Amino acid sequence: DVQLVESGGGSVEAGGSVRLSCVASGFNEDGAYVAWYRQPPGKGREGVAAFEVRATRYADSVKGRFTISLDTAKNTLYLQMDSLKPEDTALYYCVVLNPCSLSLASVTQWGQGTQVTVS
């Protein structure tokens, strides 16, 4: 079974930066991808960024501010979040996607989530 363990969340002031990490183990699903989703307080879950070797994908709301990257040697997915805004406050999830799309229907597995609060 795939295990996804996120870390790196916390509280930050608006304009600040945070880097999230997700260690993935047991990952051997053909055609699957890894991505970050989030759930703001009182709202539904939404796709943030997906990693694909040829073309990463970003939600419009985070383009130019967030960067997704993958270190295959460490089996670790990262999300560098810069110029944070209060509306970025959410529970951030590392997920497995198949196919590579930022829709909820593409998610096949969720991590436990890590909270990011921007004030």
Q: Would you mind describing this structure in some detail?
A:
The protein has strands at residues 3-7, 10-12, 18-25, 33-39, 46-51, 57-58, 66-71, 76-81, 90-97, 107-110, 114-118. The chain is mainly β and 119 residues long. It is globular. The termini are far apart.
In short:
The chain is an all-beta fold.
User: Could you report the average pLDDT, rounded to the nearest whole number?
Assistant: 92
Amount of helix: under 10%
Q: How many helical elements?
A: 0
Low-confidence spans: none
Q: How many E strands?
A: 11
Q: Shape, please?
A: globular
Query: What is the CA–CA distance across the termini?
Result: 37 Å
**Rg over alpha carbons:** 13 Å
Strand percent estimate: over 45%
Largest sheet: 7 strands, mixed
- What class do helices, strands and sheet pairing give? mainly beta
**Helix and strand succession?**
EEEEEEEEEEE
